[in-house]
Amino acid sequence: MTTGCIILAGGAGKRMKSERPKVLCEVLKKPMLGWVMDTAERFGFDETAVITGYKKECTEEFVNKRGGIVYTYFQPEQKGTGDAVKQAAEFIEAAEYICVLNGDAPFVDEETLKKSLKLHKSAKAAVTVITAEIADPTGYGRIIRDGSGRFTAIREQKDCSPEEAKICEVNSGAYWFNAKALLGALPRLTDSNASGEFYLTDCVELIGGAQAYKSENSDIVLGANTRRGLLELNEKARLRVIERLLDEGVSFISTDGVIIGADVKIGCDTTVLPNTMILGKTVIGKGCEIGANSHIEDCTVGNNVILNNVQAYSSTVEDNVKIGPFTQLRPGTVIRKGVKIGDFVEVKNSDIGENTSIAHLTYIGDSDVGRGVNFGCGCVTANYDGVNKFRTEIGSYAFIGCNTNLIAPVKIGENATTAAGSTISKEVPPNSLALERSQTRIIENWEKNFKRKKK
Ligand code: UD1
Ligand code: CA
Q1: Alpha-carbon gap, residue 94 to 183, rounded angstroms
Q2: Which one of 251, 304, 358, 442 has the lowest number of neighbouring Cβ atoms within 10 Å?
Q3: This prediction's pTM
Q4: To test ligand 1's pocket by mutation, which of 5, 6, 7, 8 has the most ligand atoms within 8 angstroms of CB?
Q5: In this structure, is residue 422 part of a structural domain?
């Protein structure tokens, strides 16, 4: 392989006070490690490896769930970033260029990686460090230059002299190495420093002739070591996504409580209203109104859709649909064009045909519903018998009367009607009425007689 990427994700991150590895702490509901892996994927490395360590099963679970071919190497003891990279020696041996990235610095971008690799190659450097100038360098490794401005070393905060501590150019934690030079330097690292750790950053001095690629985008260095830092990253990322969407023609009346994931796509003339989270791989079309108070995750939404106070997960909503308020779409749901869904309706793993109306207080689970169906108030598909789940099939233009229970598996024919209050467990043929309730009995003068008897 020509280019290999090693992502460091073994540290415990004690200051984060988490029971999980720090790199799994989330920015805009995506683990920081996910941000870095996504960047690596967009860059297009030949191979990618993740170094696990503290609570490795959590990190491995995330990596496996995310998919793609990614190697993992386990660092048994968290003895520093240099020791972490050492675990991937066989991976390094197979590569020409190795890029090392910190799993807790989510904003590194593929453009910076490309430009820095270009510098690394043209300068024929053995190591190139990606740096940035920041106002408050506290906590970062400082970029040390000699009298002629040549980059010579990285000094960690704890090991800095008071003079060095004032340097505002810092190490982002992203580097390009020639694989051979890195392999040569790793065994020579020592832990004789203020932290007693094997610093990867010491490779700069050991290898020599290092280049520093100073990024114009200083956000790339931002990492989170504490919950406070994590909150700052979240707010930065949140505003960045909103800025991008504004450029793309999306409107906000106010961005209060609006949280949109970095991978979300939204078409022009769509308005996002307050207190709305749009997350995961959601794609929303043009001219929609999303919110207020909505949570849309991993959904595909068409054009001119209104989602008002809706919770929707892993579902598809086609054009000209109106949903809400107080509606939940659970995974596996498809809402076809022109459907209207009203308050206190839950739809799960179902296909709802065009122009169907489900106006109020209804549960539709594991169902295939045709077009133009009308559900009265309070309909329920009884899809679960306590052990198994079954499907309900409803033909187009059927009319499901108020308070109908449909005991699955069951089939309602096209244009059939169920009478209000019916519990249907038998197939209803097309064009027929299914009525399942006892006749009303009237007992006259009931109230008087009843009261007299009581006396
Ligand atoms: C590191 C750099 C510092 C840089 C900063 C940028 C070193 C010595 N210092 O400091 O110069 O400015 O990143 O964010 O590298 N990790 C392991 N195994 C370990 C220790 C850490 O896998 O034994 C992983 C962590 O999970 C983390 C990454 O390496 O993702 C960086 O480790 P961290 O301890 O956060 O380094 P910093 O102190 O931030
Ligand atoms: Ca860090």
Answers
A1: 11
A2: 442
A3: 0.92
A4: 8
A5: yes
Q: How confident is the model at residue 451 (pLDDT cuts 50, 70, 90)?
A: low
- Per-residue pLDDT for 449 more than 70? no
**Same domain for 236 and 148:** no
Residue 443 in domain: no
**pLDDT over 70, % of the chain:** 98
In a domain, 50, yes or no: yes
Q: Which atom of ligand 1 is nearest to the CA of 105?
A: 14
Domain co-membership, 267 together with 210: no
Which amino acid, 342? G
Q: Are residues 412 and 272 in the same domain?
A: yes
Q: Angle of helix 56-66 relative to helix 32-43, nearest 10 degrees?
A: 40
Q: Are residues 175 and 62 in the same domain?
A: yes
In the block, tokens 């610093």 appear at: 199
CATH of residue 244: 2.160.10.10
- pLDDT at position 156: 97
Q: Which of 286, 360, 371, 391 is catalytic?
A: 360
Position 439 in a domain: no
Per-residue pLDDT of 103-116, as tens digits, reads 999 999 999 999 99
- State in Å: Cα 67 to ligand 1 middle: 25
Average the pLDDT over 285-298 and give the result: 98
Residue span of the structural domain in which 199 resides? 3-221
Cis ω on the peptide bond leading into residue 409 (within 30° of 0)?
yes
Cα(111) to centroid(ligand 1), Å = 22
216 vs 85: CA distance, rounded Å: 27
- Cα 102 to ligand 1 centre (Å): 6
Dihedral, CA atoms, 365, 368, 372, 373, nearest 10 degrees? -50
Q: Which two tokens stand for residue 360?
A: 């109020």
Task: List, chain by chain if needed, residues with CB within 6 Å of any ligand 1 atom.
Answer: 8-11, 22-23, 51, 53, 75, 78-81, 83-84, 102-105, 140-141, 154, 156, 170-173, 199-201, 223, 225
Q: Say yes or no: 215 and 233 in one domain.
A: no
